[in-house]
């Protein structure tokens, strides 16, 4: 599986962005998908995850209520809708695929995209 993340950019605090992650391959629906982020000088951290079918989701406490993860298996794409962005949300965002139904642990993800940069101005 190859993953291509897009949609990052510069946004003002309080604004919104939608990230997309397009996957290659015909077995996309068999992978749990996740979004992670890494800010300069910090460890990569979990943001959100979604199950194979899209019926189960999980969020980091820091983004709960502001971010929404979704997927369209027919389009081999997973999304991250980010609303009410804060300065601390600025980071490189990565999408990833796991063979588990759903996971919040980076170590369980086997495929990673290249990352898309989100910058939040205050």
How much helix is in the residues?
A: under 10%
Oligomeric grouping of the chains = single chain
Count of strand segments: 11
Order of helices and strands: EEEEEEEEEEE
- The overall average pLDDT, rounded, is 96
List low-pLDDT spans. none
What is this structure's SSE topology?
Elements: E1 3-6, E2 9-12, E3 17-23, E4 32-38, E5 45-50, E6 57-59, E7 67-72, E8 77-82, E9 91-98, E10 109-112, E11 116-121
Parallel strand pairs: 2-11
Antiparallel strand pairs: 1-3, 3-8, 4-5, 4-9, 5-6, 7-8, 9-10, 9-11
Description:
With 122 residues, this protein is mainly beta. 0% of the residues lie in helices and 50% in strands. The chain contains no helices and 11 strands. The strands form 2 sheets. Strands 2, 4, 5, 6, 9, 10 and 11 form a 7-stranded mixed β-sheet that branches. A hairpin with a 6-residue loop joins strand 5 and strand 6.
């Amino acid at each position: 599986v190859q993953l291509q993340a897009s949609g990052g950019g510069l946004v003002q605090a309080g604004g919104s962005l939608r990230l997309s992650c397009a996957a290659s391959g015909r077995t996309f629906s068999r992978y749990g998908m996740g979004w992670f982020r890494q800010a300069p000088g910090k460890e990569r951290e979990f943001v959100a995850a979604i199950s194979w079918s899209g019926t189960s989701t999980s969020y980091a406490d820091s983004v709960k209520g502001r971010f929404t993860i979704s997927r369209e298996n027919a389009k081999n794409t997973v999304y991250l809708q980010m609303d009410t962005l804060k300065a601390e949300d600025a980071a490189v965002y990565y999408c990833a695929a796991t063979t588990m139904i759903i996971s919040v642990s980076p170590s369980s993800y086997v495929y990673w995209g290249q990352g898309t940069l989100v910058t939040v101005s205050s």
